[in-house]
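**Backbone shape codes:**
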Amino acid sequence: MTEQEMIELALAENFAGAVVVDTKDIVFDPIFRPCCEENLCGQYGINYTCPPDCGSPEDMERKIRAHKKALVLQTIWEIPDMTDNTAVKPAKKAHNAAQLRLAKKFREGGVPGFLVGASGCALCSPCHLKNGEPCPHPLERYSCMSAYCIFVQKLAEHCGIDYDCGPGLLAFFGMYVFD
């Protein structure tokens, strides 16, 4: 599967933006790790894909840089108040579900890789870490952009994708990392 075919599949899956970048061009900044430590999502320390269990900021950067390319994915949602979790959570869930469908198509098309989500993995609820059990989905699970300490605004600018989509619109970002 070519990069162009990957982009076309993403757009057919209703992503508003889909751009392939070199992983060397992704900006990482450990200043974003405290966003996870604030535990606003409630997954800190109880999800394999969230800090501290996912790895240090340096570990996360190395994981992405070990691959050559990333397909940056964006969805845009009509959400007037970004602090309204009753609107934000379902939108993030739909974004990640679309990424999971896309990742399956990429793998079936011969492009192995892994996802970076708009939030931490929600394949199991609760995460098996909570009960001290191994993850049943080690190949499908995904960490969020904040756990990787990705500077999403700079990534969006590099891709030519709007980070701020205007009043009442909220963009979510994710990636499929591959070689």
